[in-house]
Structure formats: C-alpha cells, structure tokens
Amino acid sequence: MHSRAKAILQKFQVLFSPKSKESRPPWFWVRRSLYGLVACSLFSFTYLVLLSDETTFLHQGTFCDLTNRISAPVHLRDRLSLDNTVPFATDLSHIVFGISSSAETWDRERPYNELWWRPGEMLGFVWLDEEPPADSTWPSTCPPYSVSTFNASSIGGIPSAARIARTVVESYKAVMAEPGSREIRWFVIGDDSTVFFPENVVAMLNKYDHEEMYYIGSISESVEQTMRHSYSIAYGGAGFVISQSVAAELALTMDGCLERYANLYGSDERVQSCISELGVILTMEPGFHQIDLQDDIYGLLAAHPVAPLLSLNHLRHVKPISPHWETQVEAVKALVDVSQHDPSRTLQQAICYEHRPGVNWSVSVSWGYSVEVYPQHVSSKELTKPLMTFRTWRTRSPGPFTFDTRPADPNRACELPLIFFLDQAKSETGRNGIIRTITEYSRNMTDSASSSCKLQSYMKALELETVSVYATKMDPDDWKRVTSL
Q: Do the domain assignments include residue 79?
C-alpha cells in the first residue's frame, strides 16, 4: 500500500482567442481535474472547457498547456493496491443481475429498467411474487421474469421483506445449475426502480478479487434513515454486489437466518444480518445511490464523489434531473445515453477558474450532466460539496446528510451559479487513435435568480449561451487503482 498522497495543484496557462485584445494570458489554479487538462476560455458566446490526457488541443486560437501532467488525483489514491489483478478481467458475462419486483409494481417501474438492460448481453432475472396478468406479454426489452417459490409467510414478520431478501439466493440457484455457471463471479442485486450503469459496475468490480468474500454497496444519503436502520448495510434500492462465494454460503444458510431475523423491518437489514454471520462486512462504494432524498437531487449529481457512477434509485420521487426534459424517464435516459460515450467519466467533476478584467469566474463541470459558472471565486473545497437542493427522505428536513453540503439560498443570488445542462454529445477519434468526446450544454433560462445579481462578473456570465466540453475518453482501468475511498 502507498501512503496517502499530498494534494496536487497544477498551474495552467491559457491563451485566449483575439476576442479581447487587451487581455493577456492569465494564470490560474485548478484542482480535482480527473486525469486531465482543464481549460476555460470565453469565445464569442460559447464557453470552452478541455478535459484531456494530452496537452495538444488547439481550438479557434485557444491553447492550454500544462506545466506538468497531472497524475492520478489524490481522491483516487486513499489506498493504492500493487496486487489487485485477477486471472482475467471481469466483464458482463461474469455478472448476474437479480431485480426484486412484484406483479403490482413492475409495469410502473419497468421504464427505468429498460433504460439500462441490454437483451442478449446481460444475464439476470426479475423476481416477482406472482405471475403477471395472463393477458399481458412480457417485454423482450427487460430481463426474463421468474416467480419466487419461497413461502415467505412461513418466516414471520413482513413476508415481502423476506421474499426480497432472498432474491440473491433465488438468483444463485437459478444460474448455478446451468452450463457455464463456473464463469459467474458476482451477483448484483437491485430494485425494479434501480438504474444501473453496467460498464461502471464492471470497472468497479475489476478492483476486487472475485474469489474472495465481498459484500459491496453504499448507505443512505439521509442520516435519519441510517440511524433508523443501520450504517453498516448496503441499501438495496441503490443496489449491492456479493461475490459468488458469499452467494454460495447464503444458499445454504439464508432460510434459517431469515427466521432468526424475522423481527427486522426491511430486506436490506435481513441480507446484511445473514452476511454478517459469515464474517463479511460491507465494502463501501459511493457510486451506488439510494437517493433517500426529496425534491431536487441536482446538487448531488453536480458534485459527484470521485468514484464511478454505479446506480440511481427513487428517481420517481424527485424532480426531473434536467429541466430540458418533461419527464424523469426522458431526463435519466439522456444521462444513460451520454454515459455510453464515456462511462467512467460520467458525472466526474472538474473545476477551473478564469480571472481577467471584469471577469472572476469559478467553473465546475459535472461531465455529461451540467456546468456551473459562479460569478466569484469559490474554492475547490466548497465546489466539491453538493448544493443542498434536496431534503431528507422521511421528514423532508434540511439535513443532516451522510455527506457534506453547502447552502443553496435563492435570496443570495450572487452566490449561486448559472447552470448549463447537457444538450448533446458526440465522440471522435483522432489520427493518433485517441478517442475524445464533445459535450455541449445550454443555460437553464428558467432560473429566476439569474436576474437579481448585479455583479459585473455575473452580467458577463449572462452573455454565455452554451458551454462546450472536450475530453479524452477515460480508461476504466483507472478505477482499479482505487481500493478504498
């Protein structure tokens, strides 16, 4: 293991296009640029941001050079493993997805499942409590369904919680009798409302030895939920992963275990209790998102932790994640679609600053989702904290949360950013074979706060109509270097 690395702050030089003849190339500092180069420049009515692994981009007279190439950011290096390889890499063929549902809720939640499921490429099951209506046809765009044969009412307590807790055992037994079952390494369990990002799940799992006993997931965002349930369970709506060896042990012990824990409220606690009896504890991966939040989760998505985006849940209970779309399904589909261009970089945050006469901007990019332009200097320490645009899940209170936040007070407009949401994305391959993406973002014109700040720097920012972000495609193997966050 390496020791914790010190923070790396790198200097950038930006040469602006002849838009402003009086300005000279400024120097400014940037932090938290994920494996890359960040450049910020006003060009006509477009703001240009470059995120790359190389230092060779030229665009309309704008050049950005790096004094020293940024190495892996310290956020990815809390611990580095020198021996985290497996015989050959995990891919989707090594993973079984088990989706907990019911005949009553499936049609309602099905659109979210269809956003990420890939027929013919993935292996999994939707586990129902009973057969779907006889006059319905099961869609080919979803995993095949199976009906649980377990008599959950015999366990005691809440039958549905016991049935859902047993999804992992049902999935294990369904595949292990089939040819090729020895190739199965991991079981990914989620709800019918969970949206997974499969490439990132694969990249995350390639950090771990599938032959060891693992229970991987994340906790709730709301402290009131974790205090009520536990800080040591993987919340099932966010999704969790167990290795094949854990699944094999649960197949032998879970029925008796569920009887011992019939007094527990939910399936998540029952699963964790049974796994804890095997001596296995939770391995945290912050890219799993339960979304135990209400209102608007924009702030959380705009300042995602430096970890691959693995899942989103409870999306039906919050506002559409982008104002560019009328429905939540459409908005989430746009995020899923852009993630296909660069899965590992999706929602990864990059920060840069621009200082020149009349302009003092802090810029935060959440790749594939949004760009924020602040009319004043905001430290990277603050920008990495999500704006509190949301409330807690159960009581709709302003916290506390299980992560840092900063206020989003509409009465202090000059402290709030102008927000640009994703419009379109494309990929291109250069002559050197390096793939880069171009994502374009346009301003949310419905933001009423933008008219109440009179700072000169803010008025300059109001001239911006679009933001273009150029980025080289991130290597998913970069996530292998992370063993703990």
A: no
Instruction: Give 83: exposed, middle or buried? Use CB within 10 Å, 0-12, 13-18, 19+.
Output: exposed
pLDDT in tens, 55-78: 222 232 233 232 222 233 333 333
What are 348-359's pLDDT values in tens digits? 999 999 888 888
Name the strand (E) or helix (H) holding 336. helix 328-339
Q: Rounded to 5 degrees, what are φ and ψ at 8?
A: -110, 115
The whole-angstrom separation of Cα 195 and Cα 111 is 10
Q: Are residues 60 and 103 in the same domain?
A: no
Average pLDDT over residues 113-137: 94
Per-residue tokens: 340: 């296909």
- Expressed as residue numbers, the domain containing 179 is 92-284
In a domain, 77, yes or no: no
> Could you tell me if 224 and 294 are in contact, meaning their C-beta atoms sit under 8 angstroms apart?
no
Chain centroid to Cα 477, Å, comes to 17
| Claim to verify: residue 60 and residue 113 sit in the same structural domain | no
Kindly report the pTM of this predicted structure.
Answer: 0.84
Q: What CATH code is carried by the domain that includes residue 120? A: 3.90.550.50
Indicate whether 421 belongs to any domain.
yes
**Residue 73: per-residue pLDDT:** 34
Spatial distance between the Cα atoms of 224 and 385, rounded to a whole number of angstroms: 20
Domain boundary among 262, 284, 306: 284
- Quick check: 82 pLDDT over 90? no
Q: Output the six-digit token pair for 448.
A: 């009423």
147 and 213 part of one domain: yes
Evaluate the CA torsion angle 284, 289, 293, 297 in order and state its sign: positive
CA distance 414 to 410: 9
